[in-house]
């Protein structure tokens, strides 16, 4: 079967690998001329790692990951530890360690696994045609490609989604801006084996260990939508936003490199249940764009890839039927996680500060049980559990 995958992000590349493993001829089309990941790093929780293990990439993913053995929440203003606990009970329950990894390194690894000869850069999709027997992709450069199936893995601003749904979809601003990047691991910040998050005032500052002695950091700030970003002002802005916060947060702001720091206004899309139209189907953010607040965006794209390949391999009533079965196996799970992430974003970022303060108070009494239970709830129900 000839499969056209639109989008060379993590979801599209993983889908290509999963489909190729079943003998399909897969070509990936990407609009940019140089494939660059958005964001500095990504948390791959155990369900996402298992999907990559399933594709034979376990050792390579492990090599990219940091030793995230513990988790801690800290009062951002006083520097007092609210709670700290081992993640071993999580690993024992779900059977796999999670790995924070560099997005660039993960994407480069997936790119190499797919092979440059199977990826066409500089192909911006502008139209789709499905005649019932084949599907044709039309690109801005005038080229076309025809296959048996087209998978839209073209992200939150998906062109394929417009084709599937018959029109544009509104993105919803979640009310906060995320600054993220990489800094060297330092005892002045946090223990090297710990995911540490400082909280207060509806804001967050966080560091997670990844490979090669680096922390992935992010700082979340509730802000109006549409403020003009100025990299030269990032440090001054963050110093203002986190004025009075504990010394490690000040050290983080002082250490970060504005040139390599990303600033992202966080959005999601209201869940929808229709992912297919004829021989065309959505995957990843194109089908379920979410906030990063429970760390499941990339993991759900990996799950999509596995279920899609299984559906096309095991169902014999036709391509359209197989794609609908893929859709129906995935849309309820991803919709629930999008809404779960949205709820967590509101609590974390002070949409109702009374609720947020109650969460801070809960953290001071936390022994890890409730937090691990919540993470496990996101992981269970994956296709390779």
UniProtKB/TrEMBL annotation:
Membrane-spanning segments: none
Q: Does the keyword Signal apply?
A: no
**Cofactors, names only:** FAD
Q: Which Gene3D superfamilies match?
A: FAD/NAD(P)-binding domain
Key words of the record: FAD, Flavoprotein, Monooxygenase, NAD, Oxidoreductase, Purine metabolism
Specify one Pfam family: FAD_binding_3
Q: In which pathway does it act?
A: Purine metabolism; urate degradation
Q: What is its EC number?
A: 1.14.13.113
- Judged by the first EC level, this protein's enzyme class is oxidoreductase
Reaction equations catalysed = urate + NADH + O2 + H(+) = 5-hydroxyisourate + NAD(+) + H2O
Q: Which InterPro entries match?
A: FAD-bd, FAD-dep_Monooxygenase_BioMet, FAD/NAD-bd_sf, HpxO
Superkingdom of the source species:
Bacteria
* Location of the FAD-binding domain: 2-338
The entry sums up its family as follows: Belongs to the FAD-dependent urate hydroxylase family.
What is the recorded name of this protein? FAD-dependent urate hydroxylase
**Gene expressing this chain:** hpxO
